[in-house]
Design a protein that fits this description.
mainly beta, 4-stranded antiparallel β-sheet, globular
Length: 122
């Protein structure tokens, strides 16, 4: 089964960040972008992360009405900044692609667009 989801969210700048100002080993730098989309019946969570020694890409769906949850996670060894996370949610895109997952957090017309295509998700 293929799951393809597209969500659009308003962007809010919480803080600016510069990876170059972190005085830690690349193995200790943790970067991620996470979005939760929900209503009274469903919730979906989308994570793209680069935790130095491990990359974690994850999607979960919750169905409150029918009472089920499903999560899929893909781990990648030693991404070490390869996702090139932007300094703020107001600029820059994050795109991850492998043979099973294509997930992108992109800015279009001043809004953050979340796209997810997860082969054999559920």
């Amino acid at each position: 089964m293929y799951a393809e989801m597209i969500f659009v969210s308003m962007m809010m700048n919480w803080q600016k960040y510069d990876r170059n100002h972190i005085r830690a080993s690349k193995f200790r730098i943790k970067e991620w972008d996470y979005y939760l989309v929900l209503n009274e019946d469903l919730a979906g969570g989308f994570t793209l992360s680069d935790d130095g020694y491990i990359g974690l890409q994850s999607v979960f769906l919750l169905n409150f009405k029918d009472g089920w949850e499903h999560t899929e996670t893909i781990l990648n060894p030693f991404p070490m900044g390869k996702l090139q996370m932007p300094q703020t949610s107001e600029e820059g895109d994050i795109i991850y692609r492998d043979k099973r997952l294509h997930m992108a957090f992109q800015i279009q017309n001043g809004k953050r667009r979340i796209r997810c295509y997860f082969k054999n998700f559920y």
